[in-house]
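Cross-posting from the chemistry board since nobody answered there.

I work mostly on the small-molecule side, so proteins are not my area. We synthesized NAP and want a rough idea of how it might sit in this target. Sequence and SMILES are below. Is it possible to get a predicted 3D structure of the two together?
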Amino acid sequence: MKTVAVIGATGAVGSEIVRLLEKRSFPLRTLRCFASPNSLGQHVSFRGEKIPLEVLSKEALANVDLAFFAAGSSVSRKWIPECSARCIDSSSAFRMDEKVPLIIPEINRAVLQKQRLIASPNCSATVLLMPLAPLHRLFQVKRVVAATYQAASGAGARFLQHLYDETRAHLAGESFPSPLPFPYAFNLFPHNSPLRANGYVEEEIKMMEETRKILGDLSIALTATCVRVPVPRAHSIAANVEFKKPFQMEEVLAAIRSMPGLQLFEDRSQNRFPTPTDATGRDEVLCGRFRIDLSQPNTLEFWAVGDQLLKGAALNAVQIGELC
Ligand SMILES: NC(=O)c1ccc[n+]([C@@H]2O[C@H](COP(=O)([O-])OP(=O)(O)OC[C@H]3O[C@@H](n4cnc5c(N)ncnc54)[C@H](OP(=O)(O)O)[C@@H]3O)[C@@H](O)[C@H]2O)c1
C-alpha cells in the first residue's frame, strides 16, 4: 500500500484511525489527512511527523490508494464517487447498498472480495453482533429485543466535549448552553438520531437492517430502543434473544469464549460485569450476564459493552484495511 488517506482525521473516529494505523504498523508509505476547511493550517501527528490537514478535492484524492472515510454521510456521498482509490466508509451512506459489502472481519470476512467500496457497520450493531453472530451460527436467531446505553462520543468529538463542559458547569451550579432541549449532564434521553414516521429513530433502524445484512439472514426479527447516556465512551447493550433451536448454557459460553474479538467478562461471586469504563480503550467487546430467560423457551439474556470508537468504528475499519 502506498498512499493512505484519512478523511475526517480530526474527528472522534478519524483520530482513532490515525492512531491505529501507527499502533498496528499499517503498511503505508504516505499518510494524507483531510478535514473540513475549518481545520486548514492544523496538523495531525503520525509516526513522529506532523501531517498537514488538507481539504477534499478531486485532485487531492487522485493519488490515493486506500481512503478511510470518517467525516459523515454527506461527505461520503459526495466524495466517494469522486475517489478512484479503494474506500472504507465508516458512515451509513452506502451500508445498505446491495453492491457494497458491510463487513465485521470476525463475522463475515468471506463476503469481502475485490470491491472498491467497503462499509463498516453502525457501532451499536457491531457491539450487539460480536456476541450474537457465534450464537446465530449454532442456534439461529429468531428475534432480538435490544436496549442500548450509548456514549457521548458516539455523536462525535464535539458532543463529547459538550458533555464535559456541561458536567463541569452543572457541578459549579452554572447554566450552560446546550444543543439539546434539556440537560445532558446527569441525564439520559432516547437517541438523538432522526425520528421516523413509524416512531423508531434511525439508529434503531440501522441496528435492524445491518444485523440482517451482516448475518445474511433476512428472517431475523429485531427491535431496539436506543438511549444516549452521559458516559464519555463505550456503548452498552442489553439483549434478549429468542433462538429457533434449543440451547444449553455450556454451549453458549463455549461459543462466546471461542469468538475472536470477544471476551467473556464476569465474576459472578462479586456481581461484577462489564462497564463502559472497562471497555474504554480496549479492542475486544466485553460481554456477560448470560442467563436463560425464564419467561419463554429458547430465549437468552445477555449484556455487551464495546468501545464504539474502536471495534464499533476505527478498529473495524482498520481491520478491513488490513484485509484489503
Ligand atoms: N463516533 C462514533 O462512535 C461512530 C461510530 C461508528 C460510525 N461513526 C460514523 O463515523 C463518521 C464520523 O463520525 P465522528 O463521530 O468521528 O464525527 P466527528 O467527531 O464530528 O468528526 C467529523 C470529522 O469530519 C470532518 N469533516 C467535516 N466536514 C468535512 C468536509 N466537508 N470535508 C472533510 N472533512 C470534514 C471534521 O473535520 P473538522 O474537525 O475540520 O470539522 C472531523 O474531522 C460518521 O459518519 C459517524 O456516523 C461514528
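Reply from a structural biologist on the board:
Welcome over. Reading the output above for you: The chain has two domains: 3-121+314-323, 125-308. Residues 42 and 53 are 6 Å apart (CA to CA). Happy to explain the C-alpha cell format if needed.
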